[in-house]
Amino acid sequence: MAPKISILMGIYNCASTLPEAIDSVLAQTFPDWELILCDDGSSDDTYQVAQTYRTAHPDRIILIRNDRNRGLNYTLNHCLAHARGELIARMDGDDLSVPERLEKEYAALMADPSLSVVSCAMSYFDEHGEFTRANTLPEYPEPRMLVHGTIHCHAPCLMRAEAIRGVGGYSVDEKLLRVEDWHLWLKIYAAGGRGRNLPEVLYKMRDDRDAAGRRKFKFRLNEAHVARLAVKTFSLPKWYYLYTLRPILVGLLPAPVYRMLHRKKMSRTG
């Protein structure tokens, strides 16, 4: 019998963190799930670690691999092709789901048939422990908000399979690398879907206070690209195009200034 929830997890060079991530899935209070792991051309022992879990839980874990490094968009579509559940969850190989995550997201999604996606608030942690939580997104986002950025935290989301498959899954395009989630929400909302963000922290994202230095300028251009698509897709006023310049302007900030602003943002515990 097919499980209720299929969890898609792209894995890449995360051998040291993958056991914690999978263990947090095994500890879920919601029991009816399958975990689909896709190795995206790792050069460390990620695949071997995943294989150990696959061997221990052959009825619950599916392990596949790409022929080479393909990027997250392609990898998640590869996972989606193997998914049997009526609902699709996401998770990354270096993060943690709190035990009640799937149970609470499932309840919220089932309580409102009009919803296509449910996500939740996140906290961030590193080797020293948790140090902040993500800024809370609106509980019921509006399409126009897609001009400003992603409207649902991607890694902890739960979606209806028909909603994501109905828009062709993740779009595979160089212009959409690192913004695959933002573009997915755009497609789902353009198709008439809607979502909800739960305010409770049900997911912990592994990060560090210096992560800002790893955000390349080309990905800022990708952010601006999706923001422009949002203006066009939802026929927003022309002046909304001004918002699409923000990612580029942020990317042009001197590195020391941006790191200072990022550290200030990450230090808030709001």
Detail the topology: elements first, then pairings:
Elements: E1 5-11, H1 18-26, E2 33-39, H2 46-56, E3 61-65, H3 72-82, E4 87-90, E5 96-97, H4 101-111, E6 117-126, E7 129-133, E8 158-160, H5 161-166, H6 180-190, E9 195-206, H7 217-233, H8 246-251, H9 255-267
Parallel strand pairs: 1-2, 1-4, 2-3, 6-9
Antiparallel strand pairs: 4-8, 5-9, 6-7, 6-8
Helix pairs in contact: 6-7
Structure summary:
The chain is α/β, with parallel strands linked by helices and 270 residues long. Helix content is 35%, strand content 20%. Strands 1, 2, 3, 4, 5, 6, 7, 8 and 9 form a nine-stranded mixed β-sheet that branches.
Can you describe this structure?
Strands 1, 2, 3, 4, 5, 6, 7, 8 and 9 form a nine-stranded mixed β-sheet that branches. Helices cover 35% and strands 20% of the residues. Strand 6 (117-126) and strand 7 (129-133) form a beta hairpin. It is globular. It has 270 residues and is α/β, with parallel strands linked by helices. The longest helix has 17 residues, at 217-233. The protein has helices at 18-26, 46-56, 72-82, 101-111, 161-166, 180-190, 217-233, 246-251, 255-267, and strands spanning 5-11, 33-39, 61-65, 87-90, 96-97, 117-126, 129-133, 158-160, 195-206. The protein has a single domain (5-209), classed as Spore Coat Polysaccharide Biosynthesis Protein SpsA, Chain A. Residues 266-270 have low confidence and may be disordered.
Low-confidence spans: pLDDT under 50, at least 5 residues? 266-270
What is the H/E string?
EHEHEHEEHEEEHHEHHH
Q: How many structurally independent domains? A: 1
**How many individual helices?**
9
For this structure, what is the CATH homologous superfamily?
Spore Coat Polysaccharide Biosynthesis Protein SpsA, Chain A
User: What percentage of the residues does DSSP assign to strands (E)?
Assistant: 15-25%
